[in-house]
Design brief:
six-stranded mixed beta sheet, alpha/beta, about 400 residues
Length: about 400
């Protein structure tokens, strides 16, 4: 270390480093130094703190537990409108596909979002993000996809960028133009995909608004051939890809996104063995979304055992959206991952830290406690790591860590 004086020093904390997939990597009664770039400069047992080290701010963590900040790597947080009526319809037995065919679903949110101003979208999204941040979330992926035209998609992505400044949280903006067919292109899906590839995607990429490109590959969404057109365009623009895949049926989207070296394939209830193997070979993360599974009352589970066997990293996210997962608690999503999908508590925590970072292409910046990584941290008043997923509805987050200035 070049200097013995640092902006922040955390002492007497139990550190959960998560530097290995096989255990929590616990350092009891640990210390952690944060440098001027808000990166981790040193961590280890408190008794091994280098002699003469001082800090402008020294915090006694009182044996609280520190993890990497939680990462919600799949959300649709920017939108307008309310779809509570669809919730009531589904309780009466009407399927998601039937609701969409009647003019509900994504397109009902598109209508409301197109009518909303930048300020309206920002204010509502900031409230949602603050709810997540109050549970230790320090980084969030936010998708567009409720505009389905250039102006509204641009506005959504601009809002996603503005959230970072308003809340002080890192955001990743994902272009999801291929989310649903807009009314202007009724019965002309190929025409809409062409419009995405020739007009929307190049324009928004040139404006620096896109970190990744996503699509909805499904019988009620877009075909693998149509999604591949979008991926080819993203590839030409040097943008990474990810995909909503195998949620309601097996369209072989996971194999497609793996072929393009995709960051993640998400949902995956109908993922087959070939898709698992393709993801394993490509290093594509399986992002599991138990909130949507629960909310839609699905019964087919993602192939967790096969993903484990092939060592496919498994992330967990809220999938917050107004129609199929209005979930604003990543801690609850972790619990659901354990109870509904039979993941272990360690897998759940890795799923919202180390593996979620990989799903965003940010594994070199965050997701574990390591020297050189961003000091995106969360502090918890718990007795043991399993407590983060054990008590449903309890928030043990303890905001004593200095935020990045």
């Amino acid at each position: 270390m070049k200097s013995n004086r640092y902006p922040s020093l955390l002492r007497h904390a139990n550190l959960i480093t998560l530097t290995d997939d096989s255990d929590y990597g616990i350092i009891r009664d640990g210390a952690l130094l944060i440098d001027q770039r808000h990166r981790i400069a040193w961590l280890g047992p408190d008794k091994n703190l280098p002699a003469g080290t001082t800090a402008e701010m020294e915090i006694d963590c009182r044996r609280h537990w520190i993890t990497p900040g939680l990462i919600d790597c799949h959300t649709h947080l920017v939108y307008a409108g309310n779809r509570g009526d669809e919730f009531a319809q589904r309780l009466e037995g009407i399927s998601y596909a039937e609701i969409a065919a009647r003019g509900g679903g994504i397109n009902s949110t598109v209508k409301a979002t197109r009518a909303a101003s930048f300020a309206e979208l920002l204010d509502s999204a900031v409230n949602r993000v603050r709810t997540l941040a109050a549970e230790g979330v320090t980084r969030i992926e936010i998708k567009s996809g409720y505009g389905l035209n250039l102006d509204t998609e641009r506005r959504m992505l601009q809002v996603a960028r503005a959230i970072a400044e308003r809340v002080g949280i890192k955001t990743h903006s994902t272009f999801l133009g291929a989310h649903a067919l807009p009314p202007e292109f009724s019965n002309n899906a190929d025409g809409y995909i062409e419009h995405i590839c020739t007009a929307m995607l190049p324009s928004l990429a040139a404006e620096g608004l896109i970190d990744a490109v996503d699509g909805f590959c499904e019988s009620i969404g877009f075909s693998t051939a149509q999604i591949e057109q979008v991926f080819r365009t993203a590839q030409r623009l040097n943008l990474p890809v990810k995909l909503h895949a195998e949620q309601l049926s097996n369209q072989h989207g996971a194999s497609l996104v793996a072929r393009y070296g995709g960051l993640s394939a998400d949902h995956l209830e109908y993922l087959d063995a070939a898709g698992v193997q393709a993801m394993a070979q490509a290093g594509t993360v399986a992002t599991l979304l138990p909130g949507a599974f629960y909310y839609l009352r699905e019964t087919r589970l993602p192939p967790i055992a096969s993903l484990r066997e092939h060592q496919v990293p498994m992330a967990i996210a809220t999938d917050h959206n107004p129609g199929t997962s209005p979930l604003l608690s990543l801690l609850t999503a972790m619990n659901m991952g354990c109870v509904l999908f039979q993941m272990t508590p360690l897998e759940a925590l890795l799923g919202v830290t180390r593996h979620a970072a990989k799903a965003l292409g940010a594994e070199h910046e965050c997701g574990t406690l390591e020297v050189g990584k961003q000091a995106e941290l969360a502090c918890w008043d718990i007795d043991q790591p399993v407590d983060l997923v054990y008590a449903l509805g309890h928030n043990p987050y303890s905001p004593i860590i200095p935020a990045q200035s």
